[in-house]
Amino acid sequence: MQTKHVPIRTCIATGVKKPKQEMVRVVRVQNADSPDFVIKVDPKGKERGRGASIDSTMEAFELAVKKHAIERALKLERHLNPEEVASLRKDFADLLEEREFRQGQKKVVYKVTREELEQRLLA
C-alpha cells in the first residue's frame, strides 16, 4: 500500500518546514470594489489569491511582522498599516485558539442531559 503525499510548506518567518495542515496561511485577496488588496488569515487554506504560510505560533507571526516577511511574501508594494496588523493578529490568535480547541479536523460534540436542556430552554 502506498503512502499518501503530504504537502510541505516553509514558514516565511522562521524557515521551518512542516506539513501544510500544521501551518497557517495568510492570503492577499483582490478587493471586489477597488483595485486595492485585502490581507487576511485563511483558516481552510483554500482561499484564492497569493498566499504565504506561517508556523502555528504567535512568536512566528510576530517575527513575520517584525521582519516584514508578510509584505515580501505577498508581494505588496507597501508596508502593512497598524490596523491591518492588529486585525491579522486577532484573526491569527482566534484561529490558533480554535485549532487547539478542535484538535485537528474532529467534530466537536457537546453532551447535555435532558434536564439541563429543559432548564436552559425555560431560562
Structure description:
It is a single chain. This protein has 123 residues and is an alpha+beta fold. It has a single domain (8-122), classed as 2-Layer Sandwich (Hypothetical Cytosolic Protein, Chain: A). Helix content is 36%, strand content 21%. It is built from four helices and five strands; from the N terminus they run βββββαααα. The strands form two sheets. A three-stranded antiparallel sheet has the order 4-3-5. Helix 1 (58-66) packs antiparallel against helix 3. It starts with 7 loop residues before the first strand and ends with a helix. The relative contact order is 0.15.
Structural features:
single chain; 123 residues; alpha+beta; Hypothetical Cytosolic Protein, Chain: A; three-stranded antiparallel sheet; two-stranded antiparallel ribbon; 4 helices; 5 strands; extended
Q: From the 3D coordinates, which CATH architecture would you assign?
A: 2-Layer Sandwich
CATH class: Alpha Beta
The count of strands amounts to 5
Structural class, by secondary structure, is: alpha+beta
Biggest sheet, strands in spatial order?
4-3-5
Basic shape = extended
**What is the string of SSEs from the N terminus onward?**
EEEEEHHHH
**Mean pLDDT metric:** 88
Could you estimate the helical fraction of the residues in percent?
Answer: 25-40%
Number of helices: 4
Instruction: Provide the gyration radius in Å.
Output: 18 Å
- Report the portion of residues in β strands: 15-25%
Main beta sheet, described? 3 strands, antiparallel
Q: Which homologous superfamily in CATH is the superfamily?
A: YlxR-like
What is the end-to-end distance? 56 Å
Number of domains: 1
CATH topology value: Hypothetical Cytosolic Protein, Chain: A
User: Which stretches of 5+ consecutive residues score pLDDT under 50?
Assistant: none
